[in-house]
Write a structure and sequence with these properties.
Elements: H1 6-48, E1 52-58, H2 63-79, E2 84-90, E3 95-98, E4 104-107, H3 112-127, H4 131-143, H5 148-158, H6 163-173, H7 176-190, E5 201-204, H8 211-216, H9 218-228, H10 234-237
Parallel strand pairs: 1-2
Antiparallel strand pairs: 1-5, 3-4
C-alpha cells in the first residue's frame, strides 16, 4: 500500500479532527435540547397542580360584593379549599387623590363610611394570614358593615382573632398605613384590563372570563380552569 506523504497525512488528520469536532458539537446540541425538553416537562408537571388564584375586586358596602362573597366564594372554598387561593382588593369604583401635603383622600362609591370600611378590610386582609380565617372575617364584616368599627370588633370576637393581630389591625386603620394599603388596592383595581365596569369583578388566574358566569357560577368556572390545566377533581364531576 502506498504510504501517504507528509502533507497528505497532515490533511487527513485535519479532516478527521474536523469531523470529530462536528460530531461532538452535534451531540452536545442534541443533549442540551433533550435537557430543555425535560426541564419544560418538569415545569409543566410542577405547574399542573397549582391552585386557581381567585382575585376579588370589591367594595365593603356593596350589596353585590356581599352576595358574591357569602353565596359563591365561601361555599366554593368549603368544597375545594386546597384547589384555590384567594386575594382581596377592597376598593371598587373609588378614587384616590394625593393632597399637596402628601396625605391621601378617597372618594368611595357608597360614601365616606365605605372608605373607612375598605381601609379596615385592607388592614385585616394584610394582618390575618390564614386563608380560611381571612375569608370568614371578610364575609363577617361585609355581612353587616354599616358601622365598620363595630363590625370589625364583633367579627374579631366571633372568630377569636389573636389580641396581637387585633391590635395590629387597629393601628393600621388608625394610621397612614391603612390609607396606603387602600391606595395599593386602588392601583391593582385600576390596572385591570378590561377596566372595571361592575363591582365585584372577579378574575381566575388573572382572567376575567365571562363575568356574569363567574359571579353566578364560580364553582363551574373554576372547574373549567382546572380541566384546561389537565385536572378533573371529584368535586367537579358533578358540576
Amino acid at each position: 500500500m502506498k504510504r501517504l506523504s507528509g502533507p497528505a497525512r497532515y490533511r487527513l488528520l485535519i479532516g478527521i479532527l474536523f469531523l470529530l469536532i462536528l460530531y461532538y458539537a452535534y451531540k452536545s446540541f442534541t443533549d442540551y435540547s433533550k435537557q430543555l425538553i425535560h426541564e419544560d416537562q418538569l415545569e409543566f408537571a410542577k405547574s399542573k397542580g397549582d391552585p386557581v388564584l381567585i382575585s376579588v375586586y370589591y367594595e365593603a358596602l356593596c350589596p353585590d360584593s356581599k352576595g358574591f362573597i357569602i353565596n359563591q366564594l365561601i361555599p366554593v372554598y368549603k368544597r375545594i379549599p386546597n384547589l384555590i387561593e384567594i386575594e382581596f382588593f377592597p376598593y371598587g369604583k373609588a378614587t384616590t387623590q394625593t393632597l399637596p401635603d402628601g396625605s391621601l383622600k378617597f372618594d368611595c362609591q357608597h360614601g365616606e363610611r365605605e372608605c373607612e370600611a375598605n381601609i379596615i378590610h385592607c388592614c385585616a386582609i394584610e394582618a390575618i394570614h390564614d386563608t380560611e380565617t381571612k375569608l370568614n372575617v371578610a364575609a363577617c364584616m361585609i355581612r353587616d358593615n354599616q358601622n365598620p368599627k363595630e363590625a370589625f370588633q364583633r367579627c374579631m370576637r366571633e372568630y377569636s382573632i389573636d389580641a396581637n393581630e387585633v391590635e395590629t389591625i387597629q393601628k393600621c386603620y388608625s394610621s397612614l398605613h391603612g390609607k396606603e394599603l387602600l391606595k395599593l388596592a386602588g392601583e391593582a383595581t385600576s390596572s385591570l384590563r378590561p377596566r372595571v365596569s361592575f363591582i365585584p369583578t372577579v378574575t381566575l388566574d388573572g382572567d376575567q372570563r365571562r363575568q356574569a358566569t363567574v359571579l353566578r357560577d364560580l364553582m363551574g368556572e373554576i372547574c373549567k380552569v382546572l380541566e384546561d390545566g389537565g385536572m378533573t377533581p371529584k368535586a367537579c364531576e358533578t358540576v
